[in-house]
Amino acid sequence: MNKSEKTVDNKAAAKTVRLIAVQAETTAKTIPVTGTLVAYDQAIVSVKVPGRLQQITVDLGTVVKKGQLIGQIDPQDYQLRVQQAESALAQARARLALNPNSTEEPTDPKQISLVRQAQALVDEAKIKLDRSAALVKQGIIAQAEYDVSETAHKVAISRYEDAVEEFHNRLAVLTQRRSELEIAKQQLADTKIYSPFDGVIQEKRASLGEFLAAGAPIATVVQVNPLRLRAEIPEREANQIKIGQKVLLSVEASSNNYNGQIKRLSPTLTQENRMLMVEAEILNDGSLKPGLFARAQVIIDNKNTITTVPKSSVISFAGIEKVITVKDGKAVEKTITTGQRIDSMIEVVEGLEVGDEIVAEPGNLQSGQPVNLTK
């Protein structure tokens, strides 16, 4: 083959390619993490008072609101206790000469007849004592009769003090009966069991007609909006994580992306693997469930400038990533180190600078192969 024939073959082997410039883009700098979604809160709802379960309104998967009735103990016994306590309170008020249906409070011991009678006896004994004192001075009666009157006066005073003490005892009983009524009313109210927060019933744990002791569970409620993302951050990146940073999350079970925010950081790293435990709150539209494995990106910088190239310009083989540049009319391979993927672009960490030109779609272009440039 002569020289002119070889030149024709080289031109035939040349591939037409288009060059593009490596670009700089402003994007969010993120740290990738993996973790598990867990319920924001979970409560085992139990009965506060013993009794037979008369009503249960929920089952597995039931959506409940905060304050919604989910069960009730038979209230009949507790209604009777309230009536009994009301009667005892009325009796205590009557012993203090109070209207059983009024709410007035006793203030004067003399409002009960026992104290008034004792006061009358004291007054009578005082009059007799004064009279006896005058008669003794006049010599009409003996000193012994005066002593009898004096003793009677002291006894009357003692009985008056006992009557006043009895008033205070009755007052204390009134306070006790009032407290007993409040307890009875509270126990009656506690026969109704309410959901502590908005959530979903994870487990029904009691059946209609079952007799339950105090503290027996009837259902487990989980709060699923928001959810908690629990993830671990490597030690080398732990100091970049701050409360309030935004989180972008995805799960295998859904094609949607979810937003969240870092809310809690562990004060220490785990000694076993030197990881920082973090918690983010993720808004849930109903498609997320506790227990899902999740991948997330923690945004640590919203205005981070990176070097990017199109995904179509990168060749991957055996774990090595390359791009093709052109030098002296021939293709030249260049090894690069890539970072995060952003839509159709790839971050280049090492190997290229902004403004460098690379082949847009190298396909099966080989290093050293002649190329023709096109726009």
What does the main sheet amount to? 6 strands, antiparallel, barrel
Terminal-residue CA separation: 34 Å
Number of helices: 5
SS content category? alpha+beta
Calculate Rg over CA atoms: 45 Å
With strands numbered from the N-terminus, the spatial order across the biggest sheet is 2-9-12-11-10-13
Number of domains: 4
Low-confidence stretches: 1-12
Mean pLDDT score: 89
Strand content: 35-45%
Helix content: 25-40%
Structure description:
The structure is a single chain. The chain has 4 domains: 14-28 and 305-374, conserved putative lor/sdh protein from methanococcus maripaludis s2 fold, CATH 2.40.420.20; 30-40 and 223-302, Elongation Factor Tu (Ef-tu), domain 3 (Beta Barrel), CATH 2.40.30.170; 41-73 and 194-220, RNA polymerase II/Efflux pump adaptor protein, barrel-sandwich hybrid domain (OB fold (Dihydrolipoamide Acetyltransferase, E2P), Beta Barrel), CATH 2.40.50; 77-189. β14 (315-317) and β15 form a beta hairpin. The protein has 375 residues and is of the alpha+beta class. α2 (76-94) runs antiparallel to α4 and α3 (113-138) runs antiparallel to α4 (143-189). The strands form 3 sheets. The chain has a 6-stranded antiparallel beta barrel. Helix content is 29%, strand content 42%. The protein is rod-shaped, with a radius of gyration of 45 Å.
